[in-house]
Amino acid sequence: DLQQLGDSCSRFHAMVFNNPRVWRPQVLFPAKDARVTDTFIKQLVPNITRHYGIQTLRLIQLPLTWLGYMCIFDQFAHSVDLIQVETSKPILKDLVYHLTVFAANLVVLQQDNLIPITFRQYSLDAAQ
User: What ranges in 1-128 are assigned the alpha helix state H?
Assistant: First the structure.
């Protein structure tokens, strides 16, 4: 509903997507919400302005793949103090695998003093 409101006109878009008070954890990713899919995440999350208002992510039984989680992490990891993920074992296994590879990439790039890879760039490369 918030996404539709934000998409209705530029004034509402700024009010919805640029306001950290709108995006509380229970509003952003409601637990067990079947509508919160990878496609939904790819459409919604990049529209939310990066800020330090979102400090907790509770991702409880959402129908996401590792790609959806990585998209969320790419947008909010800079400000988050707590991430809670509750999902199926196969999805969690995939997510842990890709986070491990991502972390290894960070180590290698930092040793070579290169710009670190983002969650988004890793996801794009790994999905191909």
Answer: 2-8, 10-17, 25-28, 38-44, 66-76, 89-111, 119-127
Domain span including residue 60: 2-127
Over residues 10-63, the pLDDT tens digits come to: 666 566 656 666 655 555 788 998 989 999 899 888 877 777 677 888 999 999
The angle that helices 119-127 and 66-76 make with each other, rounded to 10 degrees, is 160
CB contact at 8 A, 12 and 41: no
Number of compact structural domains in the chain:
1
Backbone φ, ψ for residue 7 (5° rounding): -85, -10
Burial 17-47 (b: 16+ CB within 10 A, else e): beeeebbebeebbeeeeeebebebbeebbee
Compute φ and ψ for 117, nearest 5 degrees: -70, 150
* Burial profile 77-94: b = 16 or more Cβ within 10 angstroms, e = fewer: eeeeeeeebebeeebeeb
- Is the whole model's pTM more than 0.85, yes or no? no
